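Worked example 4.2. Below are the chains of a multi-component assembly; read each line carefully before continuing.
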Amino acid sequence: MLLNIKDLHVAIDGKEIVKGLNLSVNKGEVHAIMGPNGTGKSTLALAITGREGYEITKGEIIYDGEVINNMEPDERANKGIFLSFQYPVEIPGVSMTNFMRTAVNAQREFKGLEPLPAGEFLKKMEEMKKLVDIHSKLTKRSVNEGFSGGEKKKNEIFQMAMLEPKLAILDETDSGLDIDALKVVAKGVNELKSDDNAFIVITHYQRLLDYIVPDFVHVIYDGKIVKSGGKGLALELEEKGYDWIIEQFEA
Amino acid sequence: MQKTGTAYKPLESSLISAFEDKQKELFNSCHPQVSQSRKEAFEFLKNHGLPTRKNEKWKNSPFYKQYEESYLIDLPSADYDKAVNEIFQCEVHGFGAETYSLLNGWYYSSEEKQLETLENGVVVGSMMKAQHEFPELFDKHFNKIANCKQDGFTAANTALFRDGIFIYVPDGVEVENTIQLIKMINREEPLMVNTRNLIILGKNSKLTFMHCDDSVNHFASFINTLTEVYIDENAYLDVYKLQNINDNTSLLNNTFFHQERDSRLRVNVVSLNGGKIRNELHVDLMGQGAEADLNGVYLMDKQQHIDNQVYVNHLAPNCYSNELFKGVLDEEATGIFNGCIYVARDAQQTNAFQRNNNILMTPKATIDTRPFLEIYADDVKCSHGATIGQLDDKAMFYLMQRGISKVDAKLLLMYAFLAEVTSKVSIDALRISYEDMIKRRLRGELSICEKCVLHCSVPDNPIEFEIDMSKI
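Applying the procedure described above to all two chains together yields the following structure tokens:
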């Protein structure tokens, strides 16, 4: 099992947001997490990746056989956990190229590998840029600075392609994207998908799941997974909304 | 307020007695304008003393702590030794610079090079020499741009200066190579030097001037520098100040610019290290269409102190000024930024902008920032702003989520924060050099010792060098 979350409770500023969540993810699987706003989807993503201030008050996050509850975010990243941010951060003054080279080489160093020679690095950048249809001028700019909403999301997938994670969490990567950009993002994910990695796709809209087909669909409500099913569940949600699940849960 | 004898602090007493004891040398074959200024300045110093914290502009300054110290006020000039000249190597090089030096406040060169006229007619040399050779330029400019009665330090400088650099660029001459001035102090007992510089740019001329303050050891000193700069019509001056001095040195750097019509000025001040540093930039925009672009970067830690005082006076219409100062203060470092834009009644269509951004790395580091506008014209575009913050934790997490360590993420963000200023350096080789020094300073690798010939920070290696340091 790649990721095993057991009875996870997460609090922000003392307020509990995730309230006893269980989730298992195996290599080769795509899990979709859906649910109304404010139910704990992004909190789950940030707790898995180790954002400061997201306090795990109970339970365990076990990744690759190791409890990572107290691990620093960079170590989790180096062990192969990647987050495609809901709101990618603009970092003026740090060029995309410099940022990516620093990240790629930090992860290589963690694995005991030599830094990637400049030529090979640039070649890989070119390849991955094509994969997500990014203009070359974007990588010359500062990280996310002045990027449009769509460009920022494509840039997240580009970074994912560069870093080849084992577990990728896509936090509403589809929000605010037009259908063309959505297809590009999905194409990126589908090409990177393998038997050796796994994806957790957090989304509001069933639309994305037409392009990234999930093996499992989970519905989060009030900090817990209240329903799980196959890809058919997503279609049912699209049709009937969340109310029937909430009613079931609260009954 | 008049001062009385008993109220003088040790430094004030030393300054007053240095003047009284050395009158003969100070007035010896002096240009009349210089001797007149010395007298007036001394009267001011005697009556007012050095600025106290009651003076608004010195309110939060810790310089007063130095008033209790005793400094040797000046030394006779050293004999020139060609080998010694080799220690004057600044970290920043490789951009076609002609280097000139000041040692312990004296212009340091061979006798025949005390005042040189270069092929293009540019004159570079010692202030002491220049006052005799170019009396008409001294009549016109000396002590006319600066206000020697601004405070006790400008007065002390005017009354007591012994030497400095003089640069004259004739009309229409564009100087290709950068003129670089390296100032150094080498004296075991605490020394105070008063250095006076005068730079004159003729009409349509162009000059790049680099002003480096370096230390070669850890001896205490107090450097009180005053530079007057006259920029005539349509001339362009690019000034770089690089400050990398030891923690026992106090540096006061007062620069007064007078800008005529359509002249352009760009200043970049980089303060990398120093016990106490105060930079004052005074810019008078006297003619229409003049432009001043003033930039600064500072990186302080331990108990270091940095103070940037920027006064821009818009005295003519259609002028432009921009100030951008950014700094990172770590550990228990303290800082002050005081920016004042004055727009006179007739200075319509003024564009004046000012920004100061700071990052405090620890709860003990402090910055006191005061943007200030004084506007008497009604058709102007002015803005000012100041921020004090910590590193953006969202950005920190973003970088770390990609596998970058906390230490590296911090470095990357601090560097990026400062790069907005350094990216404005127009000479490529110089910009790369600057950025490199800032990176090394951020990594904690830049020590004033590492480039020094003495290598005294490495006690395991006995000091061996071919230069006879006793001569300087």
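Take a moment to check your reading of the output against the notes. Confidence is low (pLDDT under 50) at residues 449-472 of chain B. Chain B has nine helices and 20 strands.
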